[in-house]
Amino acid sequence: MDAAFTHAQLLASKGETQEAHGCLDALLAAQPAHLAALLLKGRLLLEARNDTQALSFLDRAVAAWPRSAAALDARARCLHALGRDEEALAHARDARALLGEGDNFRHAGSVYLTMVWCLRELRRYREALEVAEEGLRRTPDAVLAQWASQVEEEVARAERERC
User: What residue segments make up the domains of the chain, in order of their start?
Assistant: First the structure.
C-alpha cells in the first residue's frame, strides 16, 4: 500500500490531480484510516478550493489519529481557510501540545506557522509574535522567521497608530 501512496504523491507533485485523487480514493477504500492519504486528499481538495470536502477528509484524519500533530494542524489550516480562525487556533494549539510525542516534532514549524496565521487574522499581533518567537526557539524555520518579521512590523505599525 505504501507504493500506492507514493504513486499518488508523485501524481500530485506532477500536477496530475485527477489521477492522484483516483489513487487516493482506491487507497482509502482499502485503508480508510491511512493518515498520509487522508492528509494528501485533504490538501489537494483545499488547494482546489473544495474547503468543505477537504474538511471532511481532515475530520476523518483527526478522528482516526487524534494524537497526530500533522492531522490536527491540517484541520486547523483548513478551518483557517474557511475563516474559522478561533476554531483553527484551538486545533493548532492542540497540535502544539502534541509536539513532544513520537515523531510529531517534525511538524513544529508548520504548527507554529498555522498559529501565527490565525492570530494575525484575529489581529492579535503581539500574541502572534510571541508564538512565532516560541516556535523559532523550538525549531529553526525560515518561513516562520519571515512571518515573525512581518508580524513584528505589524505590531510596530499598530503601536504607531495608537499614538
Answer: 1-65, 70-163
Report residue 31 CA to chain centroid gap.
22
Segment 32-73, tens digit of pLDDT:
999 999 999 999 999 999 989 999 999 999 999 999 999 999
The DSSP letter of residue 84 is -
What number does CATH give the domain 1-65?
1.25.40.10
CB 66 within 8 A of CB 98: no
**pTM of the shown model:** 0.89
Contact in structure between 38 and 58 (CB atoms under 8 Å): yes
- Residue range 70-163, CATH number: 1.25.40.10
Cell numbers given for 160: 504607531
* One-letter amino acid of 123: R
Model pLDDT for residues 34-44, shown as the tens digit of each residue: 999 999 999 99
The DSSP letter of residue 101 is S
Q: What's the rounded Cα separation, in Å, for the pair 113 and 118?
A: 9
Using only the alpha carbons of the chain, give its radius of gyration. 17
Say if 1-65 and 70-163 have the same CATH topology.
Answer: yes
